[in-house]
From TrEMBL:
Signal peptide: none annotated. GO terms for molecular function: protein-N-terminal asparagine amidohydrolase activity; protein-N-terminal glutamine amidohydrolase activity. It comes from Aspergillus sclerotiicarbonarius (strain CBS 121057 / IBT 28362). This is Carbon-nitrogen hydrolase. PROSITE patterns: CN_HYDROLASE. Keywords: Hydrolase. Residues 378-391 have a biased composition (Acidic residues). Residues 56-399 form the CN hydrolase domain. The keyword Repeat does not apply. One of its GO terms (biological process) is protein catabolic process.
């Protein structure tokens, strides 16, 4: 099974690929890239990957909300939005008032804090979370999102625990007065109007103690954005939304290579993927603390692996939202909006730690003529049958992974990208030695 990894010297399977860093912009954030300077060999090779067309300015807020302290979490979020992006070489922080994003994404259950509903931690039951449940558009998360969207004139996505009340109790369940809970993501536009309420479809085992499954088909929406240069024009961008576990196999029971979420991204011809997350690391607390302002590459590697179909299969959308011509190929922008920090567990239970490492990347495909190879293309037939049923493409394409911003594992602040600018790092696929 082909696996894509970020550290060239590491081979996870007999047949695998590695992501080789081809270039690193001089504007790359030093705090995020220190780890790469010794682990990834790369020579500066700057070029402009995007023309000044529509483009998009994307921001995420990575922070460590405190358990149950909604008012305090809102204050902390507002503080970070004012000066949470440190300018390299200047040492001062700037906020979203200056960065002017088109869309802002917060983590899963951002203002409530994830452990409120973690079975075996603080509140193991539905009753425990009831004080924090919010009807669609009516709770503190929605109020904050509306105010922030109006103030910044951008779309805002925020994760929250939803309660939906039906008119009648479900048949055969008189104890339930028609109430259903969901782990949801609310999306509001620049005027504060709700444009989407997506409900998490693939539940982590701790979600199952209180939440119902949502419909994955409702995770697709055409977002409307103003043109950067001509405010009278608008662009419709096909967008797929997901929440954390959505990118994993269903209940960890379906095959790893089913790629349910990634295949839906391709089937809907999405050009933008928004992932609101509360992802925990696989490393120990000591290892996570030692990373500090460096990203957790194991987590980042895994996220990329869960999107392998976007690397191996041909993208279906006809025109990029930024108006690039065909010479630049096709691309899908992906936003990983994770949280950081640690939450205490219940008596006798371990605390919940989060991996941070929020990132804004794009997977690009550029058609190329067959020639003496260079780098292995995902469209090439790699000598032998493929247990995944990989298709041999009629016209192979080169794949690059552009990375504009990659936050540290424990960092609080703003992750930001202007997709018309050069990326901070560019990765290309190369066949790993066996």
């Amino acid at each position: 099974m082909p696996v894509y990894i970020l550290i060239p010297v590491k081979v996870l399977f007999q047949r695998s690929f590695r992501l080789l860093c081809l270039s690193r912009s001089s504007r790359a954030l030093g705090t995020a890239n220190d780890s790469y300077r010794t682990t990834i060999p790369c020579t500066p090779h700057l070029r402009r990957y995007h023309q000044k067309h529509r483009g998009m300015r994307v921001a995420t807020l990575q922070f460590a909300p405190r358990l149950g302290d909604i008012d305090g979490n809102i204050r902390r979020a507002n503080e970070l939005l004012k000066d949470g992006k440190v300018v390299q070489g200047v040492g001062i922080g700037v906020g979203l008032d200056l960065l002017k994003p088109d869309v802002l994404i917060l983590p899963e259950l951002a203002l409530t804090a994830r452990s409120l509903i973690r079975s075996g931690y603080n509140f193991p039951s539905l009753e425990a979370i009831k004080p924090f449940l919010e009807p669609v558009g009516q709770g503190p998360s929605a109020h904050w999102a509306r105010q922030t969207a109006k103030r910044l004139q951008c779309k805002v996505c925020v994760g929250y625990p939803e309660i939906h009340r039906a008119n009648e109790a479900p048949e055969g369940d008189p104890s339930n007065p028609g109430e259903t809970c969901y782990n949801s993501l609310l999306v509001v536009d620049e005027s504060g109007e709700i444009i989407l309420n997506y409900r998490k479809s693939f539940l982590y085992y701790t979600d199952e103690t209180w939440a119902a499954e949502g419909n994955p088909e409702q995770g697709f929406h055409q977002l409307t954005f103003r043109n950067l240069n001509q405010n009278t024009l608008e662009s419709q961008i096909a967008t797929s939304f997901g929440i954390c576990m959505d990118i994993n196999p269903y209940r960890f029971e379906t095959p790893f290579t089913a790629w349910e979420f990634a295949n839906r991204v391709l089937d809907t011809k999405s050009e933008l993927v928004i992932l609101s997350m509360a992802w925990m690391p696989s490393v120990s607390r000591e290892d996570l603390d030692s990373l500090a302002d460096k990203p957790d590459l194991d987590t980042f590697n895994y996220w990329i692996q869960r999107l392998v179909p976007l690397i191996r299969k041909r993208m279906g959308h006809e025109v990029n939202f930024d108006g690039d011509d065909s010479d630049h190929g096709k691309k899908i922008v992906i936003v990983f909006a994770n949280r950081a920090g640690e939450e205490p567990g219940a008596e006798g239970a371990s605390p919940a730690r989060y991996a941070g490492t929020s990132a804004i990347v794009a997977i690009t495909q550029k058609p190329r003529a067959r020639a003496v190879d260079r780098e292995l293309s995902p469209g090439d037939d790699d000598s032998g049958d493929d247990s995944e049923g990989n298709e041999t493409e009629a016209a192979p394409f080169d794949v690059k992974i552009l990375c504009w911003d990659l936050m540290g594992a424990t960092t609080e602040g703003i992750c930001f990208a202007d997709t018309t600018a050069d990326p901070s790092m560019v990765f290309g696929l190369a066949k790993a030695s066996k």
